[in-house]
Every structure is written in structure tokens, then in C-alpha cells.
């Protein structure tokens, strides 16, 4: 009898613990979502050339990283910022987001 009581109590406490932990909210504050800019499909080399041109005209140093990724770096008032640009034939994604660079790229892509 005593063994059954301890077993039942353990089961109930374990169930309560797992139920309480699974219902707690983790919050949305730290969630990072991708911000893709979609456009009409064009050849990858043309997208690449337009992104490089837009970045260089806006004062960014563009560095090749992969076939479909670039690293853009810019120094303002002694502060250097770097942005990774991931692109394909129909989208561009900047990580971390930089609105000035994104606007320059969108203008070159005709958006």
C-alpha cells in the first residue's frame, strides 16, 4: 500500500512538473526572423552584379564570400558594420538588417 501511494504521488508530481514546464511562455523578444526581399527572377550573375554595384555606390566594401553570398563592410565615424548578403535569382536577404544598404539594393534591382 505504501509503495503504491509513493508511486502514485511520484507519477502525479512528474506529470504536473512536465505540464507546467511545457505551458510556460518563452517570449518572442529574441526571435530573429529572416527579412527576404523578393523580386522578379533574373540570372544569378546579374543579381550579383547589381548588388555589388549598389553597395559600392553607397560606400560599402563588397567582399565575395560564396557564389550566392557577399559580405558588405562600411565604416562610419570609426564604427565598422558588416552585413552578410544572401541572394538568389528571386530574393535578397541581409543579416543583420541594414535599411540603407537594402534601399540601395532595391533601387538597383528596380523595386
Automatic annotation (TrEMBL):
This protein's UniProt keywords: Signal
Signal sequence coordinates: 1-20
The protein's name in its UniProt record: Lipoprotein
Amino acid at each position: 500500500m505504501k509503495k503504491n501511494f509513493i508511486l502514485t504521488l511520484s507519477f502525479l508530481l512528474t506529470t504536473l512538473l512536465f505540464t507546467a514546464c511545457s505551458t510556460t511562455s518563452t517570449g518572442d523578444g529574441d526571435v530573429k526572423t529572416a527579412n527576404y526581399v523578393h523580386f522578379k527572377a533574373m540570372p544569378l550573375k546579374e543579381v550579383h552584379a547589381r548588388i555589388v554595384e549598389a553597395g559600392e555606390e553607397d560606400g560599402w566594401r563588397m567582399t565575395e564570400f560564396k557564389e550566392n553570398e557577399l559580405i558588405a563592410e562600411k565604416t562610419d565615424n570609426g564604427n565598422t558594420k558588416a552585413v552578410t548578403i544572401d541572394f538568389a535569382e528571386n530574393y535578397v536577404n541581409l543579416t543583420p538588417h541594414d535599411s540603407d544598404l537594402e534601399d540601395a539594393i532595391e533601387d538597383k534591382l528596380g523595386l
